[in-house]
Structure formats: C-alpha cells, structure tokens
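User: Assemble these into one structure.

Assistant: Restating your components, then the assembled model:
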Amino acid sequence: MTEMTTEAITEAPGKRVWLSGLGTVLIYAFVLGVLGLLGWGLMKVNSGQRESGMAPDFTLTSFDGESVTLSGLRGQVVIINFWASWCPPCREEAPYLESTWRKYQDQGVFFIGVDYADTEKEALAYIDEFGITYFNGPDVGTRIAQDYRMDGVPETYFVAKNGELRGTKIGPLFPPELDQRIEELLAETYAGE
Amino acid sequence: MNRRFVLVIFVMVASFTTITIAQGQEGFPTDNDVNDIAKKLYCPVCPNTPLDVCETKACQDWREQISVQLSDGWSEDQIIDYFVLQYGERVLAEPERGGFTSLLWLLPVIAVLVGLVVVWQALRSWRSARLIEMQPVPSQPEVSPETLAKIEKELRKLA
Amino acid sequence: MLADIGLFALIVAFLLAVYATIASAWGGWKNQQAYVESARNATLLVVPLLTISVGVIVYALYSLDFSLAYVEDVSSRSMSPFLRLTALWGGQAGSILFWAWLMSGFVAAVLLRKWERDRDLMPYFIAVAMLTTAFFIGISVFIINPFARLWHIPGATELTRAIFQPAGAMAYIPQDGQGLNPLLRHFGMIGHPPTTYLGFTGFVIPFAFAISALATGRSRSDEWIRTSRRWTLVAWIFLSIGLVLGGRWAYDVLGWGGFWGWDPVENAMLLPWLTGTAFLHSMMITEKRGMLKGWSVMLIILTYSLVLFGTFITRTGVISSVHAFSKTALGPVFFVFIGLTFLGSLALLLKQRDTLKTKHEIESFMSREAAFLLQNLLFLAITFAVFFGTVFPLISELVTGTKITVGPPYFQKVTGPLFAVLLLLMGIAPLIAWRKQAARSLGRAMLIPFVASLGVAGIWGYSHRVHPASFFALWLVSFVVLSIFFEFWKGVRARMNAQSERPVVALGHLIGRNHRRYGGYIIHLGVVMIGLGFIGDAYFQQESQRALTIGESMSIGDYSLRFDNLETFPGSDGREVLEASTSLFKNGEFVRTLQPRRDFFVVQQQPVTVPAVHSTPATDVYVLLVGWEEIGLQSSTFKIYLNPLISWTWTGGIVLILGTFIAVWPQATGKRRVSYSLKPGKFRPQPSAGD
C-alpha cells in the first residue's frame, strides 16, 4: 500500500536531517571507533603473560610491614610467584617452592611471593601451614598482577640478574623444573662482568 | 537537675541495650548483614559475579572477611572502600563517578537529547509538507470498528 | 570412517558456498542468469551436505565415539542419550557448525519460495547470504573443526588436536569424555541455544535483501522491504523465545534468584532484539505511508551488525563474561569479517541513499507517525545505552588502564526510565490516528483506561507500598493492560451490535479479520507481562539467608521455612545429590514441601545448586541450599528469595509467542480482500490490495 500523495505541490525543503555531510563523517567515525576498540580488545585477549623485556618494577609490602622493591634486587636472580590461599594447585607447589628457596637463598637468589586477591587471615594461615620463609606480601589493588598480565594463579615469573624477564611458568612447579631454571639464571654472565 | 540526670542515664542504658540486643540477635553479623554489603560488590576474580552468590572458596573468604569487619564495627562505606583499595575498582557494581567514568552516564543522556532534537526536526519538516487543498483539515475520521463493521455489512449486501 | 564422511561433506559444503558466492555475484554483475541459477543450485546443495556433517557429529556424540576430540570435550558415558544430542551446541566447535547449518537452511528456504517480484534481487541476495554462510563454514573447516581427533605425540606432555595424523603420532582414544558443563544440563539449554541461533542466523535474510536492494538500486521500490519484514519477524520470534528461555535457564540453574544479570553476553542478545523490534515498527510506517524507508534499511543493517558484534564478543572473550566460550584462534579472522561487513554495508548505504528518499508528510505532531518516531528513538536510545555500558569496561581500560565493572545499577537506572516511556507509548499509540489526531478525541479514548488504571494501581500499590516509584510502574502496567483490553472490548462490542454475534464468536471474528492489529495487541500484552516480572524483580524482591538446624525455622515476609531432613544419594549423570527437605508455611499454614538440592558432578569436580521454587502468580518463593557453608543435619544454610510477579515473565513469553503467531498467520481469504483508507478532504475510498 504505497500511497504517494501526488497532490502535494509544496514540498518540504529536502532536509536530509540524518544524512548531512557531518552525519556521514560521524557515523564512519563511530563505526571505526567501535572496530578499533574491538581490535584493541582482541589484541589484549590474545597477548599472553609478559614473558620478555624488563620485568615491570614494583614495591611489595609484606604482611610484617617490610617492603622490597624489585629494581633494588639487581644482581640477584628473582623468582616471582603469584599465589592465593584459595588456589588448590598453589598448595601443590608450595612445599617445593619453600625447599628450593632454602637451598638457594645464600646463592644470590631472591624469592618473592605475591599474594593475589586474598584475605589476610587466610594468607597468613597458608604461610603458616607450609612454613614459608621467603618474602610474601599482598598485591594491593591487583596492580602487580595486571602489570605482568597474570591470568590466573599459580604463575611464576623468572627474572635474571640484570632485571630482564626470562619467561614464565603457568601452573604449579614440580621438581626439578625450578632448580633447573635457577641454575640457568645463576649461570648467566653479562658482558663486562 | 535530677530529672535530667535520670533521663540521660535512661537514654544511655536504652541505647546500649538496644545495640546489644540488635547485635545479640542471631549473632551479629547475620548472613543477611553480610549479604547486604556483598550484594554491592563483585567477586574480584570471577567475571561479573556478585559477591553474595559466588560459590568459590575465594568468595567465601571475602564474605568471612566482611563478617569480621562488621563485628569489628566497620561501617559499610569503610568495608567497601577497603575492598576497592585491596582488589581494585572492578569490585564495584558501578564505577565511582568522576573523571572519565562520568562519560558512562553523560553519553546516553546526550544521545537521548540529540535524538529528540533530530526527531523534532524531522517531524517539523514533515509537517510543513502539506497538500495544497488543505483548508481546515478535518482530523482523519477514525475508522472505528463499529463503522468498519457497518461498511463491511453494506458491502457484503452489494456483493 | 563416519567422521571422514562428515568432514568430507563439510569441505564440499564450504567449496559450494564459496562457489555460490562468486557465481551469483558474477551473474548479477554481468547479467547472466545461468550463473545465478547455478549459484542457487549450489546453495540448495549446501543444506543436505551440512545436514550430513551435523548428523555425523550428533551420532558420534550419541554413540560416544571418543576418537573425536569434540566428543571427548562435551559428551560422557554418564550423560543421558537426550543430553548427548544437545551436546551438539555445548562447545565452540559444534555450535559453529550448528550455526552454519541453520543459516544455510534459512537461505535455502528463502530460495525455494517464489521469486517473481524480486527476481533481480536474487543474484546479490545469494552473494551476500552465502558469503556469510561460507565464512562460518570456513571457520568450522579451518579453525575449530569438530572432526579433529586426539593424537599423542611421543614426548609431548599434552595431547594434540588435529584432523590429520601428525608425524610420528598415535591416535588416542580416551575411555570417557569430560561431558557437558553441568550448568548446561537443563531443559532450558535444550531450547535456548537453538532458538537463539535461529534468531541470530535468521537476520541474515533481511540483511541480504537490504544489501541486494541497495546494490541493484531496487531500493527505490518498496516491495522488497515487505519481504524483508516477514523474515525479520521469523528471526525476531525465535530471538524472543531464546531470550525468555535463557532467562528461565538462568533462574533455574544459576541460583542467583534473578533471571537477567545484564551480563555482556546477555546484552549481546538483547541489542539486535531491540533494533529488530524498532525495525518491525518503522516498517509499519513504510508500509502504510511510504515513509522512513532509509531509516528502515539502516535498522536492518544495524540489527545484523549487532548480531555479528554479539557473536564476536561471546566467542572471543573480548569483554569478560560468565558466559564466554573458551578462547580459540577465532578472534582475528572474525574481526576482519565483521570489520568488512560494517564498513561495506555502511559505504553502500551512504552511496545509495538517494534511492531511499521519500516524501514525508503529516499534519500534526500528534500523529501515529510521530508516536512511531518517538518509539524508534526510545528503542535506539536504549540500544545505545546498553551497547555503551557493555563496551565501557573495555574503553575504560584502554583510556585509564583500570579495570572496572559496569553492572545492573547502571543499566537499570539508565534504561528504566526509557522503558517506562516506551511502555506508556505502547498504551497510547494505538489510540492515535495516522497523520493527525485531535487531542480531545484521544483524551476521550484514553479516559476509561486511565481512570481505571489509577484505581487499580492505587489498590495494588497500597498493598505493596515499598517504593514510591513502584506505584508509577504499577500504574503504567495497569494503564497499558486496560488500554489493550479496552481496544478488544470496543471491537467485540461493535461486532456484537452490528452482527449480533455472541461475545466469544465476536472476539474470534474480530481477531480473524485483522490478524496483524490484534495479534500486535496480544504481543504488547505479552511484553507488558514480561515487564511486570522485571518490575517485581527491581522493586519488590526480598531475600534472607540463615543457618538452620533440623527442626528450626526461618521467616521472610509472610512465609516461614522449616528444615526437616537431609539426604544424600547418587543421581543421574554421574552426580552426587545432597537434598534437603523443607516445609514452607504461609501465615502459619502449611503450603508444601520444597527440596532444594546441591548436586556435585564427580568427573568435572563441579557443584551445581538446584533451587526449589514455589510459584504462584503473585510470588515465587525460591529456596536454595547454600553450598559454600557447611551442610549437615546439625547446620545447613538456606537462602530464600521472595520474587513477586516473576512468573508473569514466563507467562508473558508464551503470550508473546501466541500473539506473534496470530499476527503472522496469513489472512485466510480466498477472495481479494479490500481495505479502505479514507483521505481527508476527499471522501473517495481508494481500494488497494490487502495484505
């Protein structure tokens, strides 16, 4: 039923309200903007954990109130382990982590445990349960985890003596993997040393 | 002087008793007290899951933490602020207004206003296109069902 | 062996789809009918081929052929045969194949109809529709193939998935599969994905018509829009059903006491529904008055774009959601595809916009055209608000680096008022005439429903005087319902007087004479009922949680719940069931026993909470056995939600479907139906062919 009223003599001036030149530009800009956003989101999703380059610096305050800054640990091999008390695989690797720490702690290796999205009470209970002696502190605001693009606990990041990231381990560590990694990193020498 | 003194004591005792009763009932804080606050928060780890319905151990721990904080006398605002500090802004069901996030609210309002302007313009331009034999335009006779029924009846008689 | 046949059929289907795309485009461009016919045949052939592939997968799932990686993913020995069939859409690979199959079915169905009027649209229609279909089949073939098998390469810690045997690998056939995610083992999941996918894939049809019309310049005429409208209605019905079923599943399975969480994937479904509804209405203006053609075309393109957008964010996890599939390599390819689709259709639309110009005229701001325009604006405003809220976390992270959540409070506060105005418009607009409506006669028509609704809302709201805004919401609902009833009443009474029919017969004839109009009213009624459920959820919901020992009771509102017993036993599907027996009392009187459960799926190590619900039109009493607290005879924790008015949503969904069927049913007339439109100033009826 198309009823084009043919008697109309006066016509409205063609006010193409929604298709003026400005409108065209705006619509394109909007579509491109959405696409750009989605593209960026896609890249973010597909990029995995941080595995190379300089390890992002941070300052971590332990449950006892002490603090340590990553850049202040240059010259030592640093093992950064993300964990949480509510994470079952973390419990599996906890004894191994602690025993490896005790083995290497006088050889220029520093362990940092970053407690991710946890409650203090449970975290302290966890530390107590496994007799953990290396440095542990809560990741306030999950900033450190975000910097490292950490996806889920447990994850371990290996930092060489010069502060560069040498890869990650996703999931719990089992013997002898951690020992091997530490030995590799300890054996690194740098030009001019 | 005496009466005022008694009154003050009375008020103090009454408030103290009320608070104790309120806290003593079912053991303050009740699950509902915790949920009232947990409802306003999201699980820091799981995506888009409110804290009061999340079933993971982590969420259990957080609700336990809220419970402890409540019994320590923390106010709701203090608890929520603590959560934001510890776990990031994503625990809030809606982002704090201010700065960039105010755009979240502003843009839809602007969109509606712009839309209204566009609709207004469109209607105006439509209205100005008229048929020339327009004199006082009688409103389109509403073809009510009654009339239609009558017309059809007549037509069927003709057919 | 069977899997090889399925794979072969899939690959051939892909090749045919690609051929159909190229051949039809070529035939359209060079005006060579032979190529178009060939493309049409190829398209029709794709359907049986994909049916073979789908059939093979379904059979493999059913017969537990664990040599296929997909079967190992989603099927298991403990699953009932029925559930194994539904596992087709339980994982990413199967659901893409399913999607492609449905889409090809739609395209074939369209091609099988008579094409006399739209003959010159066929080439580009096939080209566009098959390009999309080829894309999805291509994803299935190259990226996540459901026919991949599991191989064990010596020395590797994990199994590899591949279609063809990697060097030195051995086939690995597990004893049992992981089975469907326990949350998916629910009747809602039987209906929700198929209907939703039918809704999504169905929108490719009007889209292909629109692009085709634009490309050929046939957008000058109107016929093709009418054809698009019918197919949009089909897709829209399915999407509506999908939405309702999805809500029902969430209500039954997730244990949150609600049915709509404004999660990004839920919003992704809602967006095309909103613009699709706007399109269905703007179509009415185009059909009736020939106006808003360009706008209607834009709405189809927007709707289809939103479908692609929704699928993209669901399957790639770009926006974090509880619903998301596990990540795959799908992302980049999909991104390129939707980018090309968005930009291509936009460019075409803008280039051909001259063909869409029409004369627009109305006499007054108070006219049905204006009401429709306002309604479209509202729908689009809601669409924008929901879209913006969904992507805002991404924008915020890009700009400020902080992750935020945009949750229900935002969506409710922003869309609530807009929906309210929409509801009001829904009640008034049918009373407004085309071109011009005199205020006085509108006032007269509105008077009875208006006054009556004030009364109803007053009584109703007073007995639930919780929130001032709820009065307004209840009044709105009463007003719209009464307006609709009044419309029916007027019609029935007219027929009773003119034809001397009995009321029921009159009603039947009334609806029969004008399916679209009265079907539309029934649809509106359904929408209002669904809205009622949302209103109940927003304003009147109560909850309470408490630990009880055996024999102890907890109360909420007028109800109280007593914990009677606790049992544990093995259930179907390899689960351990922990079931509590409780007694529900209202105002002290026993109502019934409710048995909330906590199922634990041993294989997946995943618990599922199954609520026990007592449903009445007024309220749902929704009881959960809280799983994260201790469960035992000494102490078990229960959570009760009182959800007033929520069952109106499900009823409303059924009414919506009923109304759509009535509206869609072809007017059963043997003779040519004539309808009259009386033009002001010229009382000369002009017959035009009825629809």
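DSSP finds five helices and seven strands in chain A.
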